[in-house]
Protein 1
Amino acid sequence: MAKSQALESNMDVDYVLTYRFAKTDKATAAAKFERLVEALASVGLDTEVRNGDNHSVLLFVRVASDEHLFGEVYRSRVNDWIHGVRAAAPQKETRESLEAEPLYEAERLRIIYQLITHPKSEGGAGITPKEGEWEEVEAVFALHDHDYNKDWIKKWTSQYILKTEDLDEIRNRLGEKVAFYFAFTQSYFTFLIFPAAFGLSSWLLLGHFSPIYGFVSAIWCTVFTEWWKHQEVELGVRWGVRGVSKMETKRRDFKHEKEITDPITGEKVLMFPSTKRLQRQLLQVPFAIGAAVMLGALIATCFGIEVFISEVYNGPFKSILVFLPTGIATVFMPILTSIFTDFATRLTKYENYETHGAYETALTQKIFVMNTITSYLPIFLTAFVYVPFGTVIVPYLDVFSLTVKPFAEDEKQMQTSHAGFSINPGRLRKQVIYFTVTAQIVNLGMELIVPYLKRQGFAKYKEMQSERAAKNGGAPASPTTSDPPEDAAFLQRVRKEAELGVYDVTTDLREMVLQFGYLSLFSVVWPLTAVSFIINDWLELRADAIKICVEMQRPIPWRADTIGPWLDSLSFLTWLGSLTTSALVYMFSNDGLGPSGHPKNLTGWALLLTVLLSEHIFFLARWGIRVGISKLASPGLEKERRERYLVRKQYFEENLSQMQRIPKMADKGVEISRESLEEDARRSSLKTSSPEERFWERQRGWRETVQVGRSLIERAEGGNSTEGKKDL
Amino acid sequence: MAKSQALESNMDVDYVLTYRFAKTDKATAAAKFERLVEALASVGLDTEVRNGDNHSVLLFVRVASDEHLFGEVYRSRVNDWIHGVRAAAPQKETRESLEAEPLYEAERLRIIYQLITHPKSEGGAGITPKEGEWEEVEAVFALHDHDYNKDWIKKWTSQYILKTEDLDEIRNRLGEKVAFYFAFTQSYFTFLIFPAAFGLSSWLLLGHFSPIYGFVSAIWCTVFTEWWKHQEVELGVRWGVRGVSKMETKRRDFKHEKEITDPITGEKVLMFPSTKRLQRQLLQVPFAIGAAVMLGALIATCFGIEVFISEVYNGPFKSILVFLPTGIATVFMPILTSIFTDFATRLTKYENYETHGAYETALTQKIFVMNTITSYLPIFLTAFVYVPFGTVIVPYLDVFSLTVKPFAEDEKQMQTSHAGFSINPGRLRKQVIYFTVTAQIVNLGMELIVPYLKRQGFAKYKEMQSERAAKNGGAPASPTTSDPPEDAAFLQRVRKEAELGVYDVTTDLREMVLQFGYLSLFSVVWPLTAVSFIINDWLELRADAIKICVEMQRPIPWRADTIGPWLDSLSFLTWLGSLTTSALVYMFSNDGLGPSGHPKNLTGWALLLTVLLSEHIFFLARWGIRVGISKLASPGLEKERRERYLVRKQYFEENLSQMQRIPKMADKGVEISRESLEEDARRSSLKTSSPEERFWERQRGWRETVQVGRSLIERAEGGNSTEGKKDL
């Protein structure tokens, strides 16, 4: 079998499980392996085992028969319908239902993944990779579709703008969650065109800190945020996933305190008192303060050292020493961040949420707080501490003279010059440019190059290891020797994919949201920000596609109907932007020197007033934009409404057809004639009946009512009301 | 039949229609009457006609048979289910369904009312009182249940606090819309206990304009508003009406511009372009400005005259003349208000809303704007114009000297004294007391006494009229002479009820919301406000009950799941309260004389800053309160959730039971034995099969996978990986 073919065919494999038994003794490993295979077989999966890398085997899995799969698909669709994701119940004949609405690849893979991982009580095999009983199952992953990947990358790199169909294709292959990320980035990219153009002209014509640019930029950020909310709904309907985020999956780690038997449903409900959770959530306050203080201290220290070296220090190696704080930050920031991320994860676990959704939201919020501090604090320090208070603070930066002591030639080089210190007005702009250009490029590079180098190094290392083993006379440790020759190429490919990382879409989303933050918060400092971002994001979209195809295992195609808690972050950043932009405009309106030519003339109350008024304008504008966007035609919602209407109508008709309809009124009216008068006589003899009966018996049938009514109407005028009294 | 009995029995009458033909010629009136009776009979209603007051007849209506009614009830319940108001579809056997969930009186009356008024296409008789074809149908009303009314009033007047069961009783009798008003007023009343107690102690200990009182009061207002939102949901679930407000009823007056055939549903949809509506809605801006200017001018004029007379004028009749502006306001305010209300109604009609809900909301908003101006502007003028700018403005009030010229003895009496004018710090408090005590009492009196006097006067007038007619020798015009003696008392009662007004719950709701506004906006001026309100509201709740029972026709029992747009007004007033309270505290913190002992020292920016900061504290507090209240246990939502769960579960089980389940895996595994080796040989001959087939055929069944896996695991360590290669 030629290598090119091996790349093309996935051998009908749906999923590969890596079973690693390095830390388990062989007997247990073998017994557990048996349980694993049995569990998979019990839910209708075919299995094949092959040798893996050292101390691991690869377990290949596919659905045994189409009937099994169709059953699961039907189950999943019925479940969707019950949770309101679908308007109508799927047809009862599975095959017909599938013909009406064919299975797409992501759906298929998701359903099989759920079959493997769902607990037994929900009809799955209950395999939980890396957890509990299944610690040895290192990974469950699908194989890349190399043909499609090649096409995808080729198409994207030769195309400027992505169409909705391109996003549909991603959704069909990689699932809605990943597709939502690409849709968001694509929308953001398209929206960036305007601020890039406006920013460029404003940079040329209006200069920095232009209030006009600030206002337009704030409005644009709001429009984008609100429009994306609208777009999320549209995409959700288009992809048939609206409401999916409300289908809550229980967390396995949830620890209950009480078990209550629900009096109505009779089910056992696991409870965790919400007051207790609230108490635990209160720990977020010290956590946030701690993170803010520690990260803030690190950033402030680096900032202080940097200011000291660049503005005060006057000795040798200045041009090199200036990178010292960056070095400190590069070393310590990741350490601190990972400590706090770990802490945040523990804290969120301790908060003991019942559902995955709640857990994710709580974790994202904590991480967002940390990211906000690390991303924006440096610029905040420059804008709101260094500039207004620089002349006061800088002389105290002598404490950082320690850092340069070994290099300084005399004490004078480390003291503020007697002529007095004056702040460097270009610092803020330089910093913004650093964060919006340099840092973005570095980031993009890191994302693509570092994993590549890592993989190359790892391959090299393994090669060397096996060479050494060969030299030492041992049999080569490589598992490839035991491969059947015809599968060798395929298995080699699978082993490589098994070594790849797991793609986490939230990291990429976070990156985009943080980038949006720079635009919203600080672009008034340097209006070209959006120009830099638009170039960066064009590359980013493609780089992410390549990353998914080459650097990562094929992602599990989860569903989503939103970008989740990041949407709140977006709103938050837009709001914060209305504050910072107005503050910056006020403070630097005379190109960095305050409204009256000198930053000293800033008054606190005027700044506060500017900020608060601008915030109110923002609230007003946001309300207007929301109203405007809600009036936009929404074909998605229209479609949903119509579908639901049709379903309702059908139910209604089905139900009412079985109901007895009101029979057409019996024509009970009788002409007033001799007979009816006789009847009157008979009636008056029936005095034994109740007053109610007598009241209603005076006029039999509607025709009599009409006749009596007519006579009443005719006699109304003229006072001849004594006539005809009897026939009432 | 004794009179007491006549009061008790409603003769099984469900509704009474007043058919007045004074303005129609007799032939047309008779023909229309026939059509009316026929239409009613065609939907299964029994009819009886009796003479009414001059130029009218009373048409009594009841459901002909229980089967008719049950059919309609079932229809209505299925419709509820389809719109998501009910979790489960009602049972198909109507009788069973009714036994499981008995009909309550309000439901019965509502369904019959809908039977009378719904268009023919929806299965009703299409009677539209006072409109179009049915102009002669003056009113459709149900008869009071005098027994229940007597009990109700007796119970309420002897009870301090109303229980939820009392509200349930109202809901069962008068429908959810009226019940929601009583529930709201009752909740508000209960919540008032705290600010009344706190206000009293703060009045004794802290004095006026206490920042502590202001803060607590603002928090309380927010808690109440947010808590009521929570309570609405609870009551909605309790009364089974949650989601009812989303069931939109089309407006008959809606004029479409286009008729589009929906491509999916195939239904004809009447369209009115929303851009055109938006253009028409823009007329609200001149309307609001016009109303504000005109009403504001009237109020400002009265205010100016009042200030002039009380503070400048020094001549005779001062004590009487001081009431002149009140007189002007009393005469012109109702005229202006009714003109603008009429205008608002026309404007809302012109805006051409498709549904009743949208129409009501738009109208309520306009009326709320007007009410806000008339209710709060006088106090605003005092607080924010008179006090800070009084010394500047008052000398110019000479223009109002015209009003007192006839009474003044010399010019001096109408000029500001030379010693200079000083503002009257007690004016603001007096005004607040006037609006929160005097005006409330007057209002309550007007509600009860004026209609009583009106009825008495009308009865007297009719008596006189018939006396005069008798004197003139004509036959008495009274219709009672044609009554059958046994029904006479009953008919007399019905004629009286026909003359009563129609109860409009929104008027009462508006009154409460406006009262809440005084508390939220100005209670910091006079902390006893809540004490006055608590007394007033205890009476108000009872007075409203009496009003409904005695002064008004029995209300049509509409459903509702909210107090509607007034909820937004409540939120608005709470927000505005956070601004006014802080402004008042800042301006009058030294008991009416500004922070530095003199109102002149007020600075605009400090005031603005106070207000804006306090607003932010309010936003923060509101967010906290919302989070807190959302954590409250919600038995209603719990119940709803459970019900929906049960329904889902049932559907799920019904659907999946029909699905073919995955058969337990066939035990395809074969022991590795001689036979299997032979099989291997056979297999290798099958080289014609595809690589995929060959890949999956290496291990037949899960047992073989396990065996191969075991051997792979065992051979992993030690490098003896060359063994057993063949059986892979």
Protein 2
Amino acid sequence: MNKSKKQYSHSEKVGLPPGSLLLVGEETTHPTIELYQFSTDAVSYKTHLNIADIEIDAEVVNWIHITGLNSSFVEQIGVKFGLHNLILEDILSTGQRPKVDEFDDYIYFVLRVVNFSGTELISDQVSFILGKNYVLSIAEKKSEIFAPIVDRILNKKGMVRYNKADYLLYTLIDVVVDNFYLCMDKVEMLIEKLQGSIDLPNQDNRFLTLIRNLKKDLLQLRKNIVPTREAVYKLERLETPLIVENTDKYLRDLYDHTKQLEDMTESYNDTINNFREDFMSHLSLKTNKIIQILTIISSIFIPLTFIVGVYGMNFEFMPGLHWKYGFVSSIVLMIFVSIIMVIIYVRNRWI
Amino acid sequence: MNKSKKQYSHSEKVGLPPGSLLLVGEETTHPTIELYQFSTDAVSYKTHLNIADIEIDAEVVNWIHITGLNSSFVEQIGVKFGLHNLILEDILSTGQRPKVDEFDDYIYFVLRVVNFSGTELISDQVSFILGKNYVLSIAEKKSEIFAPIVDRILNKKGMVRYNKADYLLYTLIDVVVDNFYLCMDKVEMLIEKLQGSIDLPNQDNRFLTLIRNLKKDLLQLRKNIVPTREAVYKLERLETPLIVENTDKYLRDLYDHTKQLEDMTESYNDTINNFREDFMSHLSLKTNKIIQILTIISSIFIPLTFIVGVYGMNFEFMPGLHWKYGFVSSIVLMIFVSIIMVIIYVRNRWI
Amino acid sequence: MNKSKKQYSHSEKVGLPPGSLLLVGEETTHPTIELYQFSTDAVSYKTHLNIADIEIDAEVVNWIHITGLNSSFVEQIGVKFGLHNLILEDILSTGQRPKVDEFDDYIYFVLRVVNFSGTELISDQVSFILGKNYVLSIAEKKSEIFAPIVDRILNKKGMVRYNKADYLLYTLIDVVVDNFYLCMDKVEMLIEKLQGSIDLPNQDNRFLTLIRNLKKDLLQLRKNIVPTREAVYKLERLETPLIVENTDKYLRDLYDHTKQLEDMTESYNDTINNFREDFMSHLSLKTNKIIQILTIISSIFIPLTFIVGVYGMNFEFMPGLHWKYGFVSSIVLMIFVSIIMVIIYVRNRWI
Amino acid sequence: MNKSKKQYSHSEKVGLPPGSLLLVGEETTHPTIELYQFSTDAVSYKTHLNIADIEIDAEVVNWIHITGLNSSFVEQIGVKFGLHNLILEDILSTGQRPKVDEFDDYIYFVLRVVNFSGTELISDQVSFILGKNYVLSIAEKKSEIFAPIVDRILNKKGMVRYNKADYLLYTLIDVVVDNFYLCMDKVEMLIEKLQGSIDLPNQDNRFLTLIRNLKKDLLQLRKNIVPTREAVYKLERLETPLIVENTDKYLRDLYDHTKQLEDMTESYNDTINNFREDFMSHLSLKTNKIIQILTIISSIFIPLTFIVGVYGMNFEFMPGLHWKYGFVSSIVLMIFVSIIMVIIYVRNRWI
Amino acid sequence: MNKSKKQYSHSEKVGLPPGSLLLVGEETTHPTIELYQFSTDAVSYKTHLNIADIEIDAEVVNWIHITGLNSSFVEQIGVKFGLHNLILEDILSTGQRPKVDEFDDYIYFVLRVVNFSGTELISDQVSFILGKNYVLSIAEKKSEIFAPIVDRILNKKGMVRYNKADYLLYTLIDVVVDNFYLCMDKVEMLIEKLQGSIDLPNQDNRFLTLIRNLKKDLLQLRKNIVPTREAVYKLERLETPLIVENTDKYLRDLYDHTKQLEDMTESYNDTINNFREDFMSHLSLKTNKIIQILTIISSIFIPLTFIVGVYGMNFEFMPGLHWKYGFVSSIVLMIFVSIIMVIIYVRNRWI
């Protein structure tokens, strides 16, 4: 399970000095480096660079996108971009809570790309460094979610070529946040499937297992969405020259999206809780009905069985045994008794 | 289901640049444009205008009301009124969380008109732009709720003709908020119907289904009312020359209404939760009573049936078989045993 | 039901312009006007005045107390005292959430007088206007709760004659808040009655109905008390020349009372929730005990009945049928079997 | 019940003017007055004083400790110390919510001494007035909890003789807060007793009653501790010359204690709620097991009893009746049937 | 139980003057004192010092680490370092809520080292004093968790030798916080074990006991983590010359860790609550299934047993007794009846 891997991880670092560069998660021997340099007028693109070959051009926007992590690699990146050791540690500890950190020359933003793999959620960490003229993005694993942005840059779609590095950062965070909507769709689909089957009789353990898994997924989503919202809020409030006023509007819009996502998780959570209660209510109703049948059958036939038993006794002297209408009378008696009992039960609304 | 349509929608836009103008929801080929221009003294009214024909008269209040959406149309409106791309995107994404956004020259306010269609809630988005001298309102679908305001403008009822565009905006939001009260009435009616039937015996699945649907409706209402309240609150606090001081009082009053609506949803929600608990308690009581009957019948007749069984055995040598009072004695014995058992049960309050 | 009348009411006004003077609730054709004018030294009292006869004497404190509402009457009052249309609308909409509103020349305070009528809560609205030198109080219905204040004014009891209009307002709000304590007493009494009967066996539907009604009452009280506390808090914070510093201490004390009332509703609510859970626990215990009895009786006698059945079969060749001690042996066997079973059950603590 | 006495009390005062001096609670005809006057160097102690004999010595710290209340007595105290009528009213209304009130010349602090009397909590009100050079403490009933402070003053233990009146006030509040720890011990003891018995079989109503009483006690404690914490917090924040900076550290420490007490009530409350849920879970498990036994016994023997019944019928022509191995075959058949059924049940994990 | 020892403890101090030095917990006769003095260039290490031998060297960072407590020892430490009596009292009361306190010359920080001893959590108190040039750490019991820091100091690993006393304090708090992650691992392991067994049939009391213990552990962890987070937050905000700006970044990072720990406790708590509900749901399902079997068996065979009983009666005149096909017909009748009943049940989905 991906989730537990993350959380076991921090404990491996207990006792190490703060800022120790130990990778938590899977190691990539050769991380790939891609460099995009663009202005409104021009764009260039290099891939499979070495760290030494990265050159920041102060005239254009530089986007350095790294895929894969290993500790010595991240240390060299830290030296190259002058990053604080704590940031490097955070980049390597791939179980971070989404957050934003402001330093003198750059802003660090970390969040998680969440995807369904079958019915299970997996999440990978993506770190962003926004410096003057550049954005450095470091993804734990290869992911397709940034492909549309590459397309926009290379083909001059959208506003990204007309703006600075801060807008690029916004765009990158935006696609990660948008990605949550895809997870929400899947959750909604699963909820509707449950909804359709809740009134069917003979639901069993599998229904409960579905509910439990769905709750686990939502808990996981919530754990990622809420701190992302907090981080975006903090990012919007930062007073920093790295973010120009124009980008504020976009960040506010991004915040609205994270807020809506949070609303959705809560409303889905309420819905699922109602499912469980509904399931229990239906089960109780069903148990009640079954016991009712048992009681009706039992309380009619058990007394009758007693009566026939009485006339099954082998006493020599029993009234009516040799009477011609004895049998018929006993049958009549029994019919009478059962009618009386049914009347009593119906009157008292017991049954 | 309307609700799911909305929420699936955002995911269609994943990967598109921010500000992309893609309609989420149903497309209207020819949206209608109505233009009302009024001052205290005069009023004029035009309909089925083209965008090019809209002329803002700075001397009067201009209300441009648009019904229906398509993306190229909204783009032209954006050019005409100088609106930010993010706003146009929000207008087209008809699953917005109610909110207010302030720009330099105008204020954007979006909320939802909620109505019961049968027992299901449907909600349509309405966007408002308040600029200098004008209000632009864009409704996703044709709706009758603005008819009273048209009437007030044309026939000089109420205060709307005596005030500026900000008061018109307030009036428009006010009718949308007032509309929630109608939904609340319907909810209240459904609650009272449930209340009347909760003590009836033999409630079944249908009762649970009613409760579930009612909860879903309330969740839906709450999801619209809470952010509306937040948006009205923010609108009241905005320091903008577009809203004159006199209108503040009305916005405060509007805020009180949204607050009261929120109170109502919470109090209804509590009531419904109590219904479900009541239902379960009644069911448990009923099950208890049925089992009690089963136990009384069983524990009296099962031992008796055993006794008669004993004398039904075919042993040759059994005491009393040939005794003249054997049968009568056995009956007396059985009556005695059952009386003893009833006494024991009653004493221990078991039954 | 009074409550639903109030809430249905607002929807009648949907579509009317803000500030429309439409009475929600019962109309009184001739509201009564009482005028009390007093200073430390003198007091005068007039009743059944017409609106035209009301004269505010700037040298003394003027208390105009109006009982009953109709819309044209309130409109005239509005003209007389120069009140904003929104205030007049609030006075007429007798389902207001308690609140305070500050205007340039006066303060509007609205809250509700809550009383038990039998076991049901009814609430009437009272509005207060505090202006310079005067308090205008408008009660929806005739109520005795202001009688003690009249007594204090006429007979110079307490501090009311020694203070200004702001203190009079405080005194009026104070008696309304004090009135909640009477409701709390009734709730407490009902709770103690429930408490006394919760351990009694054979509780039934009526117990659940009592709990449900009590919860409804508490919900109702809470809905009135919480906004009252908020309004008193806001009143205390208002920076207005209409309230002198000396009165602040009294308002703080009033706030403490509303806070205590809120504490009480929450603690009562917790208690009632515990009652319901207790009821369910007791019911489960009882069901468990009944099933236990059923199981003991059944699992002892059903196997025995089988054994006697075996010897009731009519096979010609059955061992022991003609043996002299056959019957006795079978009885011994059965006693032995039942003892074994009882031992097994007791050992396993099943029974 | 002490608690209800308090709460009924306030309603007796409904309609009286604010500041009315009416004692709520038990009246003491002759309250005792003790006067302690001390400085670092000297100490004097007088008891059974009259009000007229109290003399505040501005050179030393004066502690006037009063035990018992009656309304005329409190009125005289009010005159003597120049106290506001609202304070006198609060002193006499012995059901106050703990709070602090600041006046020009003095600070009023009221809280409650809570003690277990058997398994029930009783609480008495203690009011403190901190003035320049003096502390006036007024206890509703005689209590031993201030004895250690008297000891410290007379025998110069601790820091109390080295400090001013504000430190004395802190010391007095401190012993009242410390007293809550004793209640917590008792609660903890009761919880551990419950914990020890929760896994025992055959728990019954008494267990539920213990839980209910414990919850009631905790609710009561919480109702006293939370406002005490708020009041201490407010006291620490007061900017008043009556409290010197040095005492702030002690008040902060006191606040930490009240915070810890609040944590304890919440953690105990969680624990008790878990108890109830555990109880219900155990009960359900037990019911399940009992029904399982019933089902096993019934579903094995009921079909067998039917089979023997078949051969108990008195038809003349039944196959095998006169066969030599008829009886043995039927027994074999029955054993076979029961083995089949057991296999079916075990396979399906039904039993 | 360690926990109860702590909490009983405070009540032993009731009535003692504030600042009384009474040890709560186990006494160590001879606490050990270790002194580490280091700068970037040099390091020295002394152990088993006497208090008199401690010399603070203003040129380097001094770390005095004390293990074990007794009251006279702590008093001497207080004199040596000029600590406030309240601090000494807190050091000795080993049941403190984690907190930070600022004094003029030093900062006091207290928190708890939590460890699993088997399945039970034990926690020991550690106090830190940060003064100019020195950190004084006082551990209640010997613990290995500071060993890595000693290693870093002596062997110049990490940043600790390059920084001042404030960084040392951060490092010490950091290892204590890191230690919580180890507890979380254990909790996670226990949760996964539970998860693996929840769907197994025949869960019993032991499952409930595991859940109860796990909840108790989480409650305990939460009680330590939440105030630790608050204290770290407060420490970061302190405006004090004792903490240099550079250390702020580390404290912010530490805060993120405590926040993540808090998130983890809440998410684990949710998971465990879901376990309990799942357990109850499964149990209800199982009970339902068992009752269903009982009902099917009973309602088929009880009527049949009645029918055979009828023909077991000893009446002389019964139709069909002497008919050749009487027996066969009765069997056919019974098969017919049971088929009818099964059809009825299946149709109604009762079974």
